[in-house]
From TrEMBL:
This is CpaF family protein. Signal peptide: none annotated. PANTHER family: TWITCHING MOTILITY PROTEIN PILT, TYPE II_IV SECRETION SYSTEM ATPASE. InterPro entries: P-loop_NTPase (IPR027417), T2SS/T4SS_dom (IPR001482), T4SS_GSP_E_ATPase (IPR050921). Belongs to the GSP E family. Pfam families: T2SSE (PF00437). Residues 88-355 form the Bacterial type II secretion system protein E domain. It comes from the Bacteria.
């Protein structure tokens, strides 16, 4: 196991020395180093820093790193310094939304305006592509994640916040999908400005957060669920203690201490090659309840953790947030029931519906549509907000915001908790 704190510390030291050399070269009128020269110089600096560390350990009477440990540390520092190789320019492009790689030379890039183009190869061979992903898997997230024949699936968060999903050996060639986190620090005003939310829905959701309502965000893949979740989370007061639970770190609320100074981010841990050491999402949700949370935020519900999360919402952790894949706001209840049947508790549908009615206050559905008739513009917008009203054999709900003529959510029915929301500044224009 590699000490990630050492990788982080040495990456900072090497980065500082590299920056110092750049400043010296500039002061002396020397040309800037090329990318390859900089990498070679960084390798020399990494060796220098590791040698200094070994001498320090010996001087303190401790055992220095072995040759294998030094090699692993060097690889980790280099990976942390230089990101993701030839993928880096794409990750640096703020207009790139998604990157799909079907083998090293079949690279498709989707842009924010809806365009999709084929890009240059990101590696010279599939083996090189696999090696790059393996390095990222070893040094991204809270723990090393294997990516090999025995572990052919991988999910992780890249240093810039993007989400990477990769598979090998179950496809003819290694396949990678990267979903960009273009809006890391996002607010409700940003989503109102770009048309994701109407001003009325924005005020409604802000009041719902302040009133500590439990909210489930639903939508299809890449609809913008996580971005909306971040914006809602940024409505939470800085004084509150947040616990986030995710399969792979993505939300990054702890990256902005000025907004959320008291955050603990949990990440699912996969089993090792012997099948040991796994910590599941359900276990992490249970653990989060013992960590004095003001609110629990589950990044994405995909399985048996749903029962634990719903129980958490009914045990005093009001104001919790989560996302789920669904085709409509109404379909969310069936999706949750399906996940609950897969859980160890094996809850029957009636019991699950009672649990949903006691746990969830609102379901927000966000939609993605490519409007080909207006030049292929990609739109993301909240089209429905559904309030959970109770249970009578099934979940009773009302659509308080429903799709308008252009699909964007408009007021549709009264909210039963209007007085609570009004106390936090929400005053609808009237129905």
């Amino acid at each position: 196991m590699i000490d990630h704190s050492l990788v982080k510390r040495f990456r900072q030291e090497v980065g500082d020395r590299l920056a110092h050399q750049r400043r010296l070269d500039q002061a002396n009128g020397l040309p800037a180093m090329t990318g390859e020269d900089e990498r070679q110089f960084a390798r020399a600096l990494i060796s220098q820093v590791l040698e200094e560390h070994a001498r320090s350990e010996i001087g303190l009477g401790r055992t220095p790193p072995t040759v294998e440990e030094e090699e692993a540390l060097a690889a980790g520092i280099h990976a942390a310094l230089f990101g993701v190789g030839r993928l880096q320019p794409l990750l640096d492009d703020t207009e790139v939304e998604n990157i799909d790689i079907n083998g090293c030379d079949r690279v498709f890039v989707s842009y924010a305006d809806g365009q999709e183009i084929m890009h240059d190869p990101v590696a010279d061979s599939d083996d090189e592509l696999t090696e790059l992903i393996q390095i990222l898997a070893a040094y991204s997230g809270l723990s090393s994640r294997p990516f090999d024949t025995a572990n052919p699936q991988l999910d992780l968060r890249l240093p810039d916040g993007s989400r990477l999903s990769a598979v090998m050996d179950v496809t003819v060639r290694p396949a990678v999908s990267i979903r960009r986190a273009r809006l890391g620090k996002v607010f409700m005003s940003d989503l109102i400005g770009n048309g994701t939310l109407s001003p009325d829905v924005g005020k409604f959701l802000s009041a719902a957060i302040a009133a500590r309502k439990n909210i489930m965000i639903a939508g299809s893949t890449n609809a913008g669920k996580t971005t909306l979740l971040r914006a809602l989370a940024n409505e939470i007061q800085p004084s509150e203690r947040l616990i986030t639970v995710e399969r792979a770190l993505e939300l990054g609320l702890d990256q902005f201490p000025e907004l959320h100074p008291n955050v603990v981010a949990f990440e699912q841990r996969l089993p090792n090659s012997e099948g040991q050491g796994e910590i599941s999402m359900a276990e992490l949700v249970r653990r989060s309840l013992r960590m004095n949370p003001s609110r629990v935020i589950v990044g994405e519900v995909l399985g048996d953790e749903i029962v634990t999360m719903l129980n958490a919402m009914t045990q005093g952790n009001d104001g919790s947030l989560s996302t789920i894949h669904a085709n409509s706001s109404m379909e969310v209840f069936n999706r949750i029931s399906t996940y609950a049947l897969q859980a160890g508790e094996r809850l029957p549908i009636d019991a699950t519906h009672m649990l949903i009615a006691g746990a969830i206050d609102f379901v927000v559905f966000i939609e993605k549509r490519n409007d080909y008739h207006v030049g292929g513009t990609l739109r993301r917008y909240v089209s429905s907000v559904r309030e959970v009203n109770g249970c009578d054999g099934r979940v009773l709900s009302s659509e308080v915001f429903a799709p308008g003529p252009d699909g964007t959510a408009l007021p549709h029915a009264p909210v039963s908790c209007l007085e609570e929301l009004a106390a936090h500044g929400y005053h609808p224009g009237g129905w």
